[in-house]
Each structure stands twice: as structure tokens, then as C-alpha cells.
Amino acid sequence: MENKGLRRKLILTCGLSATGKSHWAENFILSLVKNENPVFLDFDKVRENTWGARAKNLKPEEHLFKNEITRFEVKKAFVLGAEAVVLNMVMPSKKFHQEPFIEMVRDTERILTGI
């Protein structure tokens, strides 16, 4: 029996705001993985769904929670059958964006390996 967990992909598009990440991800990357039941997650939209209009003005403690929300959305997509998740986000700082993201990927990988 094939282990589908090893075939799953988490594809990250990141960069500065207004540089075309979303356009590139939705119009090119998703077409590359179209046969893998892909899910496109935009980090800004995930935040807006949780906090509404104040999503861009979060308190420091809420920034930790936004990372958990993103982690949950990625895990949910894989558990519901996606073999590829394209995550679009701005990650300007190492401490508050890049390091939490890497930990989220490691945590998600541990969970998917157990499924």
C-alpha cells in the first residue's frame, strides 16, 4: 500500500506585499498540482476570516495565535484529502514569521506521518 503522506506537498509563496505572489500561485502553481486536489490558502484571508477588519492591527499575543490558525488550516486541508497545499504569505521577519512557519511545517509533517 502506498503511503500518501509522503506524497503530500506544502508549497509556500512568500515575499513582499503587492509583488504578485497570489497571482502567480493561483494562475501557475495551482495548475502544476491540479491533479492533487490542491488547496490554496492565503494567509491574509485566513486572518481576515478570524479577526475581520482589525486583522492588520493585531496585538503581539494575537500574532502567536494567527500562526496556530494557519497551522490548523494547513492540517485541515491535508486531513480532508488535499495532496498539495499552496500557502501564500508575507514573511518579513525571521522571529515572528519564518521560524514559526518552519515549526508549523515540522509539526504538520509529524501529524501526517502518523495518519
Explain what this protein looks like in three dimensions.
- By secondary structure, the chain is an alpha/beta fold.
- The chain has helices at residues 21-32, 43-51, 60-79, 94-114; strands spanning 9-14, 39-42, 84-89.
- The relative contact order is 0.21.
Summarize the entry for a quick read:
With 115 residues, the protein is an alpha/beta fold.
Q: Mind describing the biggest β-sheet?
A: 3 strands, parallel
Q: Which ranges are low-confidence, i.e. pLDDT below 50, for 5 or more consecutive residues?
A: none
Quick check: average pLDDT? 82
Strand order of the largest sheet: 1-3-2
- In total, the number of strands is 3
N-to-C order of helices and strands: EHEHHEH
Assembly state here? single chain
How many helical stretches?
Answer: 4
Helix/sheet category: alpha/beta
End-to-end C-alpha gap: 14 Å
Radius of gyration: 14 Å
Globally, the shape reads globular
| Beta-strand proportion | 5-15%
Helix content: 40-55%
Topology:
Elements: E1 9-14, H1 21-32, E2 39-42, H2 43-51, H3 60-79, E3 84-89, H4 94-114
Parallel strand pairs: 1-3, 2-3
Helix pairs in contact: 3-4
